[in-house]
Specification:
Layout (H helix, E strand, L loop, with lengths): L31 E3 L25 E7 L18 H5 L4 E3 L6 E4 L2 E6 L5 E6 L13 H14 L2 H7 L2 E6 L4 E6 L6 H4 L31 E7 L3 E6 L19 E7 L2 H9 L5 E4 L2 H6 L4 H4 L3 E7 L6 E6 L9 H10 L2 H9 L24 H7 L26 H13 L3 E3 L2 E3 L9 E5 L3 H15 L6 E5 L1 H9 L5 E6 L8 H6 L18 H12 L3 H17 L3 E3 L5 E7 L2 E2 L19 E2 L2
Parallel strand pairs: 2-11, 17-18, 17-19
Antiparallel strand pairs: 1-4, 3-4, 5-6, 6-8, 7-8, 9-10, 10-11, 12-21, 13-21, 14-19, 14-20, 15-16, 22-23
């Protein structure tokens, strides 16, 4: 196996695939598009470099999911949907390569063309593109899909649509997007929206669809059976129109992809051990080392694969909702970071084998540097110096405990910060000057035993500063409903970030739609510095400025103390049936949407 994936952050793409200064205009229609410069693969490429063009078809992959669902439409705000469906059902003009930080290649589009400054982009549909029911994909479907998703679809689609000045048909199979802002990424985002069948939704309320309507798309898989609370079965469409498109060659090889649902993590793992599930991602290294010794492993029927990657860590942990009075003061949030005894929790949960996330882009060249901000980073942040929290300019690092259960230094630091924020211990309880106790609710999703165990230890630590939070466990539907409405004080949080951060950062951390229901800015951050750094990374015309803008954004977010970080996963651990195979060549993104089951195959 070729595990030297650092080769992919190659000299040709620099440390984040931003090659040079402003890219030149594409004078003619192209087969692909990159954020900067040209995509790595030539027009006559046969398949993606990490796909096996000779892979056989057949077999099935079964994964275990904790929770349930009440909708099969991943393109709308309403309902709880299996997260994988967005990737299985959402075929678009272009597809993302996992081997380049931000390059796209044609899928539904046979070509892409942009204006001199990417102020517009055109896509031409491939002849023969068909929906799963055999009807052709038309320009009319394209126009309807973009407008519908941009107005009543999931919030992830709304920001892009607000930056589209016009969308029009300019040829038999060609559409043009014209943009109303300067933003180089928009030309790429325009190629990544799912195309749906307009006629299916005549007389049907798209925004309210549940399990009664399964979206018809042109993708390689179709949902052929399901039962809420139990399973979803997707079958490979034998009549899929695009199997010879280079981006698709060697992908979508497995006949059935089945998602089995369980009430908690323990039941899901037991199902894997007895063969009801044949692929399982493991996020706890201690469990990987101690509990993967059951008979199927010993007999060789299940194999353990460790897959490296070069993705940033992103942010995983417990987010504090700054919309709530309890966490509007940064000193209180800082106190929570000191109380959360990570070193002790990590020893209990993973035998201290998992490194901690240190910032939003840790484990990557985009991560903030140690010590004071320097150079362009400092220059970008200086206009906001008066509003930045301590550490953004001077340098910030997460509190570190001594590993003991009592964590005396952390407890003392937390008490000092709470007092600075107006809270002191009175009669054994943390109270303000009016005698009101400090308390908050921690919202968890049902079935997450590992998160529950960490929170139990956190609650014990909080008792040492006179704080007694309420822990509420909600089922999947209730959890989504409450987080969509920001009805929580603290909850589990996960945001994956990439080597090519772009407009999605506004969704994660931007202030414009911070209170819009269903948004992704769970912490409720409203920061001119954050908005400005996102704007800079979107309009940077050089590698240095792009990297500096991301590093500056990382500083503002991390020093904002919005999330209590836990582990980072710099490798992926997947145990799977021996019949499930994957290519020896690994992409830089590693195990990421587009990898399993996309390029895997089943071989007896």
């Amino acid at each position: 196996m070729n595990t030297s994936i650092s080769r992919k952050l190659r000299a040709a793409t620099g440390i984040v695939a931003v090659l040079a200064t402003a890219a030149m205009a594409q004078a003619d229609p192209q087969h692909g598009i990159a954020m900067y410069g040209d995509p790595a693969l030539p027009p006559d490429f046969v398949s993606l470099p990490y796909a096996n063009a000779e892979a056989p078809n057949g077999g099935k992959i079964v994964t275990a999911e904790v929770g349930s669902y009440d909708s099969l439409n991943p393109f709308i705000r309403k309902g709880s949907v299996p997260w994988q469906l967005r990737f299985f059902l959402g075929e678009s003009f272009m597809g993302r390569s996992l081997d380049e930080p931000f390059s796209l290649y044609g899928v539904l589009a046979e070509s892409v063309e942009t204006g001199p400054n990417r102020e517009w982009v055109e896509f031409t549909l491939r002849e023969g593109a068909m929906f799963s029911d055999g009807s052709p994909v038309t320009v009319e479907d394209v126009l309807w899909s973009y407008e519908t998703l941009g107005t009543v679809g999931h919030p992830r689609y709304l920001g892009f649509w607000s930056k589209v000045e016009s969308l029009e048909q300019v040829g038999d199979r060609t559409v043009r997007f014209t943009f109303n802002v300067e933003d180089r990424e928009l030309a790429l985002l325009a190629g990544m929206r799912p195309i749906l069948k307009k006629a299916q939704w005549d007389g049907v309320d798209f925004a309210e669809s549940t399990t009664e309507v399964v979206p018809i798309t042109s993708a390689p898989y179709v949902i052929d059976d399901f039962e809420p609370g139990r399973f979803v079965s997707l079958r490979r469409n034998p009549d899929y129109w695009g199997r010879d498109v280079p981006f698709r060659v060697g992908t979508n090889n497995i006949d059935e992809v089945r998602l089995e649902f369980f009430g908690d993590e323990t039941a899901a793992f037991e199902a894997f051990k007895v063969g009801e599930v044949n692929s399982n991602r493991e996020f706890n290294v201690a469990r990987w080392d101690s509990q993967y010794n059951f008979p199927a492993i010993q007999d060789g029927d299940v194999v353990k694969s460790v897959l490296p990657h070069e993705r940033p860590s992103g942010m995983t942990g417990f987010v504090m909702n700054t919309r709530r009075d309890q966490f509007s003061d940064w000193r209180v949030r800082d106190a929570m970071l000191h109380v959360f005894n990570f070193e002790f929790i990590n020893e209990a949960m993973t035998d201290s084998q998992q490194p901690r996330i240190t910032s939003y882009w840790s484990n990557s060249p985009l991560a903030m540097s140690d010590g004071p901000a320097e150079g362009r980073v400092a220059e970008f942040l200086q206009p906001f110096a008066a509003d930045l929290l301590p550490g953004a300019l001077e340098g910030y690092a997460l509190p570190a405990g001594d590993g003991s259960e009592r964590n005396r230094a952390g407890t003392a630091a937390a008490l000092a910060q709470m007092e600075a924020a107006g809270w002191t211990i009175q009669d054994g309880t943390m109270k303000n000057a009016d005698g009101q106790p400090f308390t908050f609710e921690i919202l968890l999703k049902q079935g997450s035993s590992e998160n529950q165990a960490m929170i139990d230890m956190f609650v014990e630590s909080l008792s040492r500063i006179g704080v007694a939070p309420t822990v509420t466990v909600a089922d999947s539907a209730q959890f989504k409903e409450r987080t969509d409405a920001y009805q929580f004080d603290m909850t589990y949080y996960r945001r994956g970030v990439s080597l090519s951060p772009g407009n999605e950062q506004y969704n994660y951390y931007g202030s414009e739609d911070v209170d819009a229901p269903g948004g992704r800015n769970l912490m409720g951050v409203k920061s001119p510095a954050v908005d400005a750094m996102i704007g800079r990374l979107l309009t940077s015309e050089s590698q240095d400025d792009f990297v500096a803008a991301v590093k500056a954004l990382d500083r503002v977010l991390t020093s904002g103390r919005y999330v209590i970080p836990i582990y980072q996963w710099n490798i992926s651990r997947i145990a799977h049936a021996k019949e499930l195979k994957y290519p020896e060549t690994l992409p830089i993104f590693g195990d990421w949407p587009g990898w399993q089951p996309d390029v895997w195959w089943y071989e007896e």
